[in-house]
Amino acid sequence: MILFSATNKLPRNTGMNVIPVWKLYPTLCFCKTVQTTTYEVVNGSYVPSTQTKQEKEMKDKSSAKLDTVGAFQKLPMVMPSVDILHSALRKAKRVLPTKGIANIAKRERNRGAKQLDALMKELVVPLRTYLESFPKKKYLHPYERSLIELTLGDGNYEEVLGNVDALRKKVVSVGKEHASFCAKSLTKREAEERLTEGVKKIEEVFNHEAQVVDDLLHIAKTLRAMPVVDLETPTLCLVGAPNVGKSSLVRTLSTGKPEVCNYPFTTRGILMGHIILNYQTFQVTDTPGLLKRSDEDRNNLEKLTLAVLSHLPTAILYVHDLSGECGTSPSDQVLCFCSPVGCKGKDKMVGNLYGTG
């Protein structure tokens, strides 16, 4: 220890080795923390943002999904409910007890518990795989969301997925309950009876709501059959009243024979033609005719036209028949042309083709 005098602050002579004051080198440590804040530019001003980096990445990921189509073609092949059940029963019966159990009662209850657990998993795993493979509606392209609503009705897609998930949870609950019950058997006979009872109960629960699995199969089959729209190819969309000659014009403009795109909610096919000009390919398609009425009164065909105009990057060519022989008066055709139906907030090329019969 170094002692300093009270007068001149010099160290006293205490018989110890004294370090001169000019050789003392004090060290200062600074701890500096950096706090960052994210700002967004809103109307020319910086506004603090509470969004974390992870939330931003998730938002960017979800928005990226909205920019593409083709999710329907990636849907899984759903097995019929009866096939799922028969496969699960067959695989569960093959499960053997754990090796090395000499006691007959213990071996039998081990076998029963393992078979019930295997039966439960063989039923649940396919359902969980289906639920994970079907995309949530909010992650779909707006055009595909519109097709789901037109095909299945508003809310039915989510309802069927919710019913399948509810069935999965019931099978898990009943399966675990009876597997645990069987594992507590005291005799071989009791274990066999509880195994039979558990299999019967699980099968009964699954069969009671197996229709939801078949509904999911129907949805997957229907959506996979939807025509795929190529967003990268420039597309010209012909719009107009019914019977004005849009389909004939598609056949005339197309380089080859137009293909017919069928949608499950209508028996009318949609013509999709291709134009090859200077080694570049363009798409030209007709749309179901639009009538002069409110959106609430439109049928599925007209709603398909609105979905195409609202959500797909297309140029629009309005086709008019001024002779009135199409069934819609020229004035109503002009009103349909002037109304911003399906074109709100979008820049589109608009052309007019007038036919005389």
From TrEMBL:
InterPro entries: GTP-bd, NOG1_N, P-loop_NTPase. Residues 236-324 form the G domain. GO terms for molecular function: GTP binding. It comes from Carya illinoinensis. Pfam families: MMR_HSR1, NOG1_N. Coiled coil: none annotated. This is Nucleolar GTP-binding protein 1. It comes from the Eukaryota. Residues 72-230 form the NOG1 N-terminal helical domain. SUPFAM superfamilies: P-loop containing nucleoside triphosphate hydrolases. Signal peptide: none annotated.
